[in-house]
Structures
1.
Amino acid sequence: MNRGRADGGQKRLILVVIIAVIFGCVYIYSRNSGTSPVELGSISFKRLSSSFGGDEDADSSTTSSEDGDGDVALKSIPVCDDRHSELIPCLDRNFIYQMRLKLYLNVMEHYERHCPPLERRYNCLIPPPKGYKIPIKWPRSRDEVWKANIPHTHLATEKSDQNWMVVRGEKIVFPGGGTHFHDGADKYIKAMANMLGFPDDIINNGGKVRTVLDVGCGVASFGAYLLSYDVIAMSLAPNDVHQNQIQFALERGIPAYLGVLGTKRLPYPSRSFELAHCSRCRIDWLQRNGILLLELDRVLRPGGYFAYSSPEAYAQDEEDLRIWGKMSALVERMCWKIASKKNQTVIWVKPLTNDCYMEREPGTQPPMCRSDDDPDAVWGVPMEACISPYSDHDHKASGSELAPWPARATAPPPRLADFGISSDAFEKDTELWRRRVDGYWDLLDPKIKPDTLRNIMDMKANLGSFAAALKDKPVWVMNVVPEDGPKTLKIVYDRGFIGTTHNWCEAFSTYPRTYDLLHAWTVLSEVEKKGCSVEDLLIEMDRILRPQGFIIIRDKQSSVDAIKKYLHAFHWEAISMPTPGSDSDEEDDGTVLLIQKKIWLPSDGLRNSE
């Protein structure tokens, strides 16, 4: 046996030297190739967490330094490889393949969220693609974006006969077409309003139609043209073979979210949308006892519509007729009725009350949901093939009793009673956030123009009063409600805004560089309280924030002080930080820190071509 012989030690020494040489070459290459503009740290970013009560013994000799107070200040964060410039950590197909997750493709499990464990997270900054430019401003962005920002043109070729998008020089242009509305979304929307008999063919029906769910939205041209009618759509599509469609939507300044009708409930509360829409969305609505149609039923309001444009609605071949027959029978058992059917589109309407449900024959399928089912529990909750009945209030009122838009934004909605919140408390919250947002804009004023901001995220939306304070500005807000708190997202929707449920211990379902401003009200301290990594959250915030974008942090003083130690490493700049006590808000709950993300340059530079 050779165990313990001296030549074994020599071999080990040679192996160590070889490994060191390899790492040295990789390091030199990364420095010279221009893909990494910042110093690459050799320490895991997770270990540098003493400011938040983490490991105080971390060796920070190469990536951190002592600040004036003796705390650890991070000097640099590694930059991800260029191939990760469009990384979506919880929707990463490469991760699914590498982990060999056993998922059922026929029910779209592979397009649902699958987040990497801590040890497989990318603790690095996401670089922009080569040639990235500051995005074109709204409203021009509705119709054109920079090709360099989303360098994918396959949809322009694949959908060339449907007018989805056209490549013109350095730009990608969106003529407004779609799979079932080649002549433009605007004409299609007017035709839909005409089918429903709305006054003057205006889809908002006097402000009664405000929130829309567009399933399988493509590049979201349907949602884009709804905006001119004061109608806001949650444009939904998976990260599928038409990848980047949601990225195009957000680059255009159109509300959109990566998601799929698969096995889990959509992250939206019950009775959220006046209209759901599917234009050739290629969904098998009959699968699993109609479970996907029943999920749409859950999120539609009383009297809500489902507009369906698809060959089954008009084609006469044997297979389409078979599907149409079965689908018609299913929606009839769900108590839906045809509101209108014309050309290639059928529009169904939900009942206003529970009467039809109670009149069904015993044993009718699909069944009513169990009495203990919470239709507003959505985060990670499996779909069920059952009908969610209306609350006693909605049944007696024959509808949601919501004010028309725009009065809806500030009118106390009936579902406030679910939380024991009075109209007076609601109005005080609305006024409080109006004052706070006015204060934010005073701080932002030296840095922004009227068209600087478009896509905004409120990371802890509560009752949606932050969004309400912005309703007259040319912006839209993705209102995020934590999954483990009060289910107030339904109040947000009842006010005429949109949003989603989320757990900030995980990455958000969006592409990098998709939001202009993030508002984080006590989000950092609450993530820390849950035992999750605040550093991971900061990396995630940097991922989804556009270059030159802003972060407004409103949190306890200790959390704000800790964030300041990370500014240099993230290429963030604190542009305003009122001192404690300077805020005149008598209900103040922390210190405000206003941050701007700097432009950090890959090798070929980043240009502002506006």
2.
Amino acid sequence: MVNVTKENFIEQSNDLIHHLQTAAFVAIDEEMTGIQVPNGSRRGPPRKDLPPKITYPDLKRAPERYSIIQLGVSLFHSNIVASPVKAEAPSDDEEEEGQMEDDVAAAVAAAAKTLPSANQAIDATEPTWTVRSYNFYMFPSSSARWDDASASREVVLNPSSVAFLNEHNMSFDLWTKQGVNYVTGDRAEQIIADYAIKHQEEQQQQQTKRSSQSVEQTLRRTVELTRTDDVRFFATTMATLREWLDNGGMFNQSTTTLLLPSCNAFLRRALYENIEREYPDLILENGGGGHIRVLRLSELEKAERKVKLQREAWSKMILNVGMWRVFEALSRACRGAPLSMQSPLFAPSFDTVDFDAVEPAWQGRRVPLVVHNGFMDILFLMTHFASPTLPDSLTVCKEMITSYFPVVYDTKVISTEHTAVWTNEQTNLSNLYNGVVRENPSVLKSIITREDSQQEHEAAYDAFMTGSIYIGLCKHIVRERSEGAMNSNPILGDMMHLQGDSEYPLALACDQREYFGRNKIFQMSMFTLDLQNSLADALKRGMISSAAYHVSGIDPSVATRDIVRCCSDLSDASGRKVEFNIVWVDDTTFIVAAVVRRDASSNGSTGNDAAALLQDHGNIIKQALQTRFSKQEKVVSLDEHFHALETANDEQLGWIGWTIDKVSSMLGFPAKRKADDVDVAARVAY
């Protein structure tokens, strides 16, 4: 792991970009200045009985207000070696292709050759993984333009978050002094465009001789000095310049720089004009503090200076774009879009930039993004690099996320939804890493890393743990499935779902979601966010809203054991035991949902049979709840509860609209058209 600041950003971001497209997957984590914004008198996470589309407006306020301190990125490269049954020794050319040298396209092709296909025999040796981790410190530039959306957002610190990070040795000094700048995409593209235009203009100016300057420059009115002091200063300065030139000759003097005396802008212009006219081979620079710096250089030195200034201009552009360079590279890799290594943004140095290069049109493998409980991490990425203000609706927000990162895996979802082992265990990052990786020698030994820090809540180390957990969970799922119906599927045996859609058979597309939780994101509620379904989100752990019951208005003295007593020892007509989950909402509200426990031999499918079983068991639970809680308490299905929430929300919006109409009428403003009027007008227009 390496800490990345302004001092080494170009070098380390070059390293990340160089290895990114050949990574099997990328894991990220973030540390922020705050994670929750109090909503009036209520603090803490949203109520668990509220669907995501209702809680989202409150959740999005945190990434819009707070800032990322660290962005941790870990690249995981698979060292799987697979060969046909009758393998031949690799040729010298093939060995060279495996070195991942300068040509990224060749590196991608070489890496693709190491990935086994369905008709290849897999080496029985446990595959290993090479990890590269980067710990980026981010801090907005103090010199950002006033119209830059990123600059208009102040750095806000949440006291509890700061105290928590202090306990885990966060270097706030390094963050504020050496943090890398970040801008949104619109601003970054403008910075790059301005840089390219300026470079092109400078090239054109150098190719144009002074004698062929534009008419406007030739006819520009020269400065006329009239004040005695100005004339005297001008004459003395020019005499000093001539003496400097005469004493050493044009190119024989060891000192090639002369700093002219400080003066005002009017006199500097007069000096610029006169020196450029009399000594066109001299180079004039702003020396700072009202000085003009005069350079006397040979043709070779001029060429070297030109290259030096071009390199400095490119480096300045990269630092001004800052962390957007990393974000855009991650997004392109996740989308399967090419990274043009000759473009001003992704070239490793100015020397390799080709301003006329055409961006490759090929579509590569989509590199998955892996997170742990990562909804807020992704939202923070959106507000820092896409738009400081998130969409008002969750539907549009999901579409925004998938436009940047179409393939996402959340280890929190995988551990709680897609395995039979860790479903009811503590699944915070540290505990999960201990259980899945540290206590699993085969996984632990397979991960090769230069990770010299094991500081939890340092973004790079948390990203490393996240990716390592992902490997362990996938291997566990493969072992679970291989004992059942998945025995005949060789793809899962090698985590071949990582190859992406271009190499993945259409028939197995559902497997990526059903078995590995593709594009399902954990949320602190009863729901799992589904990025592939912009309109709806499913309940967790296979629960369905028609077989889950919302009980409110209970006596605060009621405890979990009372609910367990109520619903235990229930069975259906076939004698199958009724399983259930209990979710507490607050001291007077809880939810009980029928569930079907999956084990290692099950396929995890919740088809028609499972849905019918859940509904049958839900009805049994409902009867038990109504028997136990039938006085002052209210027992309704989650379907009914959600419908009541939507109705109340619609009524509230309607009351607000009615109030606005009344106030507008009292103030003499025209009344707003009703929805029916709009529909009628639309029909007439057609």
3.
Amino acid sequence: MEPCSSLVSLSTTDLSFSSSLSLIPYKTHLKVPNFRSSFKVLAVAVDPKELPQNSPQRLLKELAERKRAVSPKKKAPPRRFILKPPLDDAKLVERFLNSPQLSLKSFPLLSSCLPSSRLNNADKTWIDEYLLEAKQALGYPLEPSENYDDDNPAKQFDTLLYLAFQHPHCERTNARHVRSGHSRLWFLGQYVLELALCEFFLQRYPRESPGPMRERVFALIGKRYLPKWIKAASLQNLIFQFDDMDKLIRKDREPPVKSVFWALFGAIYLCFGMPEVYRILFEVFGMDPEAEDCQPRERRQLEDVDHVPVEFESRKLSWQDVAAYKPPEDALFTHPRLFRACVPPGMHRFRGNIWDYDSRPQVMNILGYPLSMVDRIPEITEARNIELGLGLQLCFLHPSKYKYEHPRFCFERLEYVGQKIQDLVMAERLLIKHLDAPGRWLQEKHRRVLMNKYCGKYLRAKKLHPFIIYGEQVQDAYDNNRRLRNPATTSVQQAIHGLAYAVYGKPEVRRLMFEVFDFEQVQPKTV
């Protein structure tokens, strides 16, 4: 056997040798593919300039180099995930003390909607250039609002009006105090609009169910109709300073208009109250509730056999009647006209039944009713308590019991106004409680607190659900089926809030939501 060395060159593929150790014949000619496969080719250096102009390899090579230069593999994390060092105590105290949000002790809600820091020169430039045009279009005096007294909430109107027009698609939205201030205004403004139109339509159409009213509201302040009102008030140039609103497509036109529209009514409500909201809606924007495109679809309506109050019977109330209405001094309720729109005089025939004697005292005891009121005449207190008991019975009288016998829709009307006042009270609570939070975070928090399954849960936690009067055919289904039970108990909860608002006003709704039912779930639970 011939000795072999590892130093022998393998350049030739024709290797011939003989062996007597094995009877298995060795192939003397090795296959070229097997021999080459033992070497791994890591890279081939080819100059793309040497390749032909239209060579695929050259195009791929240039594309890879271009990708490497334009988009590196390691992307920077989003800014919201970059941890910043916390402010030290001195800077934090200075920031809060200099914040306009803590400057108004007498108007906590208005103070919470002011910008988190003082307006800078860029903000004042916009105010000097465009604010007079906005105030003229809305029908306000042109002098600066800083000239008002300190105890007048309209003193902050210029600042809030500036924030209302800084929608998320404008150039000033990069400033944190502007972006957060605007979003907090539109978060409040949407619920102000809903409550204003709810009260208006309930009093204007006393025999109508809330279904057609919701259609009327959508036809007035639905997203697709808002550009029409903005253009009617000649405010489109303040929203789209560099574009023609009519030439924009819907997805570029509607979101900024909706954001400004809602924020505008949030600012007006904070500075001037609900009557001014009606004036802007129906006088400045020119909304017409009797317009043809505002009418609901036709429905089968059962004949209404009950009477309505004299002030509703003679004519349809206008927005001036609703905005300028002030209850008399000896009125039974805080909102007497709204109460009569939901609980007409004919409802007294429901009094004196088993529920009135058995369940009503227990319900009033759980809710803390009747509240102690100081009236000039004792008979007024007694009459109010009687009407309150009647209203509570209507709140617990589910539509499945009387829907086809009595078409007045008292339960649905109380539920409708209760839903809107509940939304507004919760929005005001969140704005005051979370000064730093932007509007979108507040919107999500608002939605999670007032979800159907939670509202009904608050009512059931107080053991009020056994007092609901269902029809015999659906009693078992509503008691045991979660999909039916949650909306039913939620609607009763909202009807109670609507009744409390009409009888005692907004402070009573706050007491029910945050003290009796504990919507925020912050009170200690009894063991």
